[in-house]
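Table S2 (continued). Query chain:
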Amino acid sequence: MTFIRPNFRHPEHHTNEIGYSIKNYEGALSTLCAGCGHDSISAAIIKSCFDLNLEPHKIAKISGIGCSSKTPTYFLGKAHGFNSVHGRMPSVTTGANMANKDLLYIGVSGDGDTASIGMGQFAHVVRRNLNMVYIVMNNGCYGLTKGQDSATTDKGSAGKKGIPSVFDSIDLCQLALQLGAGMVARSFSGDKKQLIPLIKAAIKHPGFAFIDVVSPCVTFNNTPTSTKGYEWVRDHLEATDTIDFIPAKTEITIDYPEGASRRVQLHDGSELLLHKNSADYDLSSRKEAMNRIESVKEQQKILTGLIYHNQQELDTHGRINTVDKPLNELSQQELCPGSTVLDVLNQSMR
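Corresponding output:
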């Protein structure tokens, strides 16, 4: 048995529009438990970046501490990376983004890293609308420290130790909505058909995009009594709709009635099946998104899919009116234009 990933790829292996194969987006071999949902999320990130024809060296992947925060090692091996301390991924990402806004920032965190020690940092990176993709790999337990309940463990849910949680859980999607996130979604690590389009949409969203991914822990939280185990999640999912992501090319338009389905041919010749709900809610309404989460929760189900989307808000750079050129590319003359410019600035404030 070997733990070395083979370098061989078939000569006719598919490449994307910029000539990269899927290998260019992979990382090291995973050391997580066999069957861990986090590896499926890593695979979805790899596939999304491959399909979007992104150059790995123009991506920065940043994480905190936990099983989830190990995963950037397993994808985008040629991207920039920074593994920060527990709960501090948002501030590190903010600093990097302020210095170089031209990179795509993918932040990876866990339910403990975000909903406990990192809660304060999470709150402020959301309200500032930092242009980044924030993915929470949510398994409802502390996998690195023997499976204790986390802040997202549902009340009454019991993991491997069999003791039901006595506390109400924190719903990170509801929190992201309240704090002003421009895109909010939830998915399941075992549903790649839903997860991959959501990651693609998050990458293209101009601002803070949040995805909460329920990712069962196969070691400590994969029991019938756990609401974040494979069995319970598969039996209690309710999706907002069947979705897909279409890259920006010549616009494809279609008009069809509510409650109907239509097939649309895409630019690559493939077909997309669309279904329009007859009584859905307005994705641009925070109030309706919150109500939908609550109504589904009352049915003892998990709402997945795109929950809220609003592209109208300015990101952090737009709000504080930073210069167009990334700060790390500014010259000494641009950073320190001299005392004359300073005198003019001071005079304008008198």
